[in-house]
Amino acid sequence: MPSPSVAAPRQVYEAYSQFDGLAFEYLRAQALDMEASSSSIHRIRKEL
């Protein structure tokens, strides 16, 4: 079993990596949503 001084940074890194992945997925979803909204706005403007 690793000593606490080794385990703690590893746990922090793993937790950060998971959070970083979730943050990336959230931002990607936001960007896709903005792109879809923008496309809808452009399409509606053309129809008007």
Core attributes:
48 residues, mainly alpha, rod-shaped
Q: What overall geometry do the principal axes of the alpha carbons give?
A: rod-shaped
Q: Mean of the pLDDT scores?
A: 78
Described by strand count, sense and barrel closure, the largest sheet is: none
Order of helices and strands: H
Helix/strand structural class: mainly alpha
Question: What is the radius of gyration computed over CA atoms, rounded to a whole number of angstroms?
Answer: 21 Å
Total of DSSP H or I helical runs spanning 4+ residues: 1
The end-to-end span amounts to 68 Å
Structure description:
This protein has 48 residues and is an all-alpha fold. It has one helix and no strands. The protein has one helix at residues 4-47.
Write the layout of secondary structure elements.
Elements: H1 4-47
